[in-house]
Structure formats: C-alpha cells, structure tokens
Amino acid sequence: MAAFHDRFDAGRRLGKRLAGLRGQHVVVLGLPRGGVPVAFEVARALDAPLDVIVVRKLGVPFQPEVAMGAIGEGNVRVLDPRTISVARVSQEDLRQVEQQERAVLESREARLRKGRHPVDLTGRTVVIVDDGIATGSTARVACQVARQLGAAKVILAVPVAPARAVVELKEPDDVVCLLSPQDFKAVGYYYHDFSPTDDREVVQLLDAAASAAHHTGGGGADGSLQEDLEIPVAGVALRANLHLPPRCDGTVLFAHGSGSSRHSPRNRFVASVLHGAGLGTLLLDLLTPEEEVNRANVFDIGLLAQRLSSATHWLEARHDGSLGRVGYFGASTGAGAALWAAAETGAQVAAVVSRGGRPDLAGPRLAAVRAPTLLIVGGADTQVLALNRQAMASMQAPTRLEIVPGATHLFEEPGTLAMAASLATDWFRHYLLPSPVGRSVPEATPWTRDSP
C-alpha cells in the first residue's frame, strides 16, 4: 500500500518532521519538477521562503550518462577530477559540454522563475527537497551547488529513499527521510498519485509561495490555524484543508472544478492571496477518490451543491460563528455548484466568485441567488465567456463580469492567474470583511458590468 497519497501529502508530513527549523532563517529549495509540490508544503509549514534549485549534470562526451560534474545557477560548477582524468576529457570537450548544458539550465531557469531573482542563500540554513531519491546523484549535486552559493548549512529532506542511499550521502550536513526501505522499489511505488508535475504547476506554486510571503512579511508564526480535516457528509468523509487567521471576519469555501482537487496549484495560489488579505479559506474535495472515478459524479451539480452546503453548515457549527461571513469560490463546474448552493433557501452566503466557471450549470436556480457574484473569465475562453453572459441574464443578484485579457480557460498565461486572484480578493474583501473608513464598497443592488 502506498505510503503517501500524493506529493502534497508527503510535503505536509515532511514539514511536520522539520518543524524544529521554524524561525531559524531557513530557505526551502525544491528540485524541479516533482520536488516542488513537496517543497511547497514544507515551506508553508516552516514559514520559510520557497525557491527552486536548478542543476544540470555534465556528462562525459562519449558516455553522457556518466557524470563528470554538474553546474548550477550563478555560474556555479562542480567537477569530478577523477572521472575527467580517467575518461581523458579535454578542456575543450569540457567547455563544449558545459556550454550546451548551461544553455539548457538558463532556459529552464527563465521558464520557472519568470523574472524572479533567486533567494540569496548566503549564511542561511538551506533545506533541499525532492519527492524521493533513487540513486541520489541529483540531490548530491544540488547540495554541492547550494554550498557554493553561500549556504551555511545544507539539509536534504525527502519523503522516501533507499536505506543504503541515505547512509552514503555525505554532501548534506543532515538528511531527513520519512521512509527508507531496505527493499526499495522506485520512488513512484510509494505514492498513490505520482502523476507528472509540469513547469506550469511549478510556476504556479512559486507564485503562490511568493504571494503568501509578500502579504505576511516573509514568515514568522502569525497565530493562524491550519488544519487538515475530514468532514462527514451523508455517509462519506470529504477531505479538506482549513486556514483561519487569528481574527477571522470572513471565510471562503472553494468548490473545485472537474479533474481538480484541494491540491490544485491554481486554487492554492488564489487561497494564498486571500490569506494575505486576512481571509480564511477551506479547500474542499466534494467527492471521494472512489467517487471521482465515475465521471457522472463530477457533473452532478446537485450532489456537489448539497455537499458544499452540508460542509458549510458543519464548519459553522464546529467553529461556533467564528468563521465570520462566508463566501464561495468556484472554478469550472465548481462554480455551478457554488451558485446552486448559494440559491438554497436560508443560505447565508455573503458573496460568490467564479473563475473560468460554468454558472450556467446552476440552471434555473440562478434567479434565486442573492449573494453578490463576480464572474471572472479569460478573454480567450470564448465558449465559456458566452455561457457566462447567458447566465448573467438569469441572475437577479448584484453581478459583475470581469474579462482577463488573453487568458484561456486555466489562466495559464503569465500574470493572468494573479489578476484573477486580485479581482477575487477585492470582491471578497468588499463583501466579507468590515469596511474600513475610506474604502469604497460596491453597491448592494443588482447591477452588472462587462469589463473589456
């Protein structure tokens, strides 16, 4: 049986093991790509900045799988003189290999960083995180590169690695490994979900971490509550991640779209921006893993809405009114469920935001929605844009349509997800939080605006 549900689950467990490092001027570096989701959760647990460490192996020219060294960012180079000597690699051969690999490294760095500067490692304790170790060659190089970049102490942290590899690692000052089997199979064997991580997800997780650091001042315990929950609803347990600030005047519940979950990097990014504005969040899976296998359940909007309503009531009762006003954030099909739930008789929902959503799936219930609703749609998502405009015609609540120029359905284009998160945050701040003096609040009467 798999030890970890997915990389995020592994990261949360690793973060708990590393909790003693909290407040010790730590930097967390994820090895792209699979190490970054793990590192994201570790950085969150330690209130530490998150970055990537990009390295490239230098292979022997006539036998590239044999490493004669490696390179990292900042023109860092680590060589193995013995291999170079035995393989009789000339300085010109070495220069050509390094030039080729340097071009690949710089291209990847630019793709992942999107103009961000690397975190300065000088004098810091650096935690290098991967999703697991097979041979350990990449991890060794990363540790050496971090040291050359100025790290005072290097800790390698992984969820799983062969017992022998852990003992043989000499490059880090310390190794933290949750699981080190003697009969190691392969890293993916220990995960229930080991689906590939792509560059887009890495960028979104770095964006989310950077946004959270910007709003919280870069770390330090703030007294917020972070909790993994199982919410009992109609005989099933729905998994959720709860974040509540010390004083909570408003909480946003997320209804994810088809094929997504509480681990969605896009929704985690939006949630991190909401946290910076002082809002609580609940990222909730409306279906169990077994139910998701049946695609009909994914589009059963009535079922999803009923579970969202039940989870809201359960959470409100559990926290005895300390959630403040409640809002819903829906993406894709989740937007239909959020609006359906908001239309229920007696629903105490103060605001709804849809990102790339399908409000039309709420059907005739749209007219019963009373919560002010913001519809955010990508300008290049023409079919969904048309469906949102049609849905607006059925709505009686204060409704606004915001179009993010150039964005497609998943808001993958640079800057578009950040724009959507900013729009959502402004909407929820207006309707869920107490209005400070001097801040304008949208009218509480039905109106619409179709922004170009």
Report on this structure:
Helix 7 runs parallel beside helix 8, helix 8 crosses helix 14 and helix 11 (about 300-320) packs across helix 12. The strands form 3 sheets. A 9-stranded mixed beta sheet has the order 9-10-12-11-13-14-15-16-17, sandwiched between helices. Strands 2-1-6-7-8 form a 5-stranded parallel beta sheet, sandwiched between helices. It has 2 domains: about 5-195, Rossmann fold; about 220-430, 3-Layer(aba) Sandwich (Rossmann fold). Strand 15 (about 375-380), helix 13 (about 380-395) and strand 16 (about 400-405) form a beta-alpha-beta unit. With about 450 residues, the chain is an alpha/beta fold. It has helices at about 5-15, 35-45, 80-85, 90-115, 135-150, 165-170, 200-215, 265-275, 290, 295-300, 300-320, 335-340, 380-395, 415-430; strands at about 25-30, 50, 55-60, 65-70, 75-80, 125-130, 155-160, 175-180, 225-235, 235-245, 250-255, 280-285, 325-330, 350-355, 375-380, 400-405, 450. It is elongated. Helix content is about 35%, strand content about 25%. Keywords: Hydrolase, Transferase. Belongs to the AB hydrolase superfamily. InterPro entries: AB_hydrolase_fold (IPR029058), Dienelactn_hydro (IPR002925), FrsA_esterase (IPR050261), PRTase-like (IPR029057), PRTase_dom (IPR000836). It holds the Pfam family DLH.
